[in-house]
Amino acid sequence: MRYRAAIVGTGAIAAAHASALRKHASRVDLVAVADLVPERAAAFAETWGPLATYRDLSELLRVPLDLVHLCTPPATHATLIAECLRAGVGVLVEKPPVLSLQEIDAISDRSGRVGTIFQHRFGTGAARLRELIKRGDLGRPLLATCHTLWYRDDEYYEVPWRGRWATEGGGPTMGHGIHQFDLLLSVLGPWQRISAVAARRSRPIETEDVSMALVEFADGTIASVVNSVVSPRQTSTLRFDFEHATVELEHLYGYSDLDWKITPAPGYGDLTGLFPGTGTEKSSHADQLAAVLDALDAGEPLPVTLPETRLTMEFIAALYASAATGKPVGRGEIGPDHPFAARMNGTGFAWQNYASTTPSNGR
Predict the structure, then answer these.
(1) How many alpha carbons fall within 13 Å on the CB side of residue 204?
(2) Hey, where are the domains in the chain?
(3) 125-275+311-342 — its CATH code?
(4) 212-227 pLDDT, tens per residue?
(5) Closest by CA position to 171, among listed 210, 145, 225
(6) Which residues, 6+ apart, have CB-to-CB distance to 31 below 8 Å?
(7) 3-state class (DSSP) for residue 262
(8) Closest Cα partner for 292 from 67, 127, 111, 14?
(9) Disulfide engineering: 160 pairs with which of 218, 304, 347, 357, CB 3.0-4.6 Å?
(10) Separation of alpha carbons 129 and 78, rounded Å
(11) What DSSP character marks residue 50?
């Protein structure tokens, strides 16, 4: 079956969605784009079209669609997701999918028609690692590190919705490191407790520009998570120390099989070939879109579902709550009436002194 898709919001990330759709052109057609600025919609349609152009989602939903890709600023996501669901249209939403646990809990999606873009889950290396863990080849996980060390200058934050609690929901914890530690969580499973710090060291923003956390997992595994936008040598790294081997990944915005490395423990040299490092294809939105199209074919929920997404969002809320209070926060501790359920800055941070702004359209 062929599907009809549209993109809402024509900022930089929209190109990644359009490229993914083009890669799967035998299964899905990109037929339309919407943006509050007509000139931007027209320019996008000229690049990726021919496409019908619309001013907003309401106009767009008047045409037959199977899937909407939401590429608008984070503060708009919850409202737009709800509008798509009322129209009976599936949604792929960019990260962060919403601004708070309350927002994600308010979305009624019993049929699994909402999927969050966490594309690194779907790369071949990550799939191979999860399978090896399932088979027991690597032994028990013992220790992990997850570091997203990126650089975003002051000019980057001149976009009005960036770096504001009310419009982006958080700093690098919410908007940058989320991809790496979501991959970490997809590999190691349920987390139990977080002890964290967050700081604004350099950027002229409301939110943090760096955070660090120590994480305890349900099986006893311990991990460190670092999120930064002040690091000139940019890198995204994950390291998993198992009983029988260390598995490492270093990349920046997308990994290939070449970026994975395995170091067997003494006596386990036969594990060397488990990551052959032969594929050069980067993990991308196209990987997840393939899984989305498969789910549509099978009538199954879209990956990654809102309940799955909530586990990652709760991780973020707990990290911020721990950083603000100076106390460890356990999974399940942030209930519906908790201040960090309503907003990621909860009770506030000492450095918060910038006025919030209204988000622009686009990403």
Answers:
(1) 9
(2) 3-120+288-305, 125-275+311-342
(3) 3.30.360.10
(4) 999 999 999 999 999 9
(5) 210
(6) 4, 5, 6, 51, 52, 63, 65
(7) strand
(8) 67
(9) 357
(10) 33
(11) S
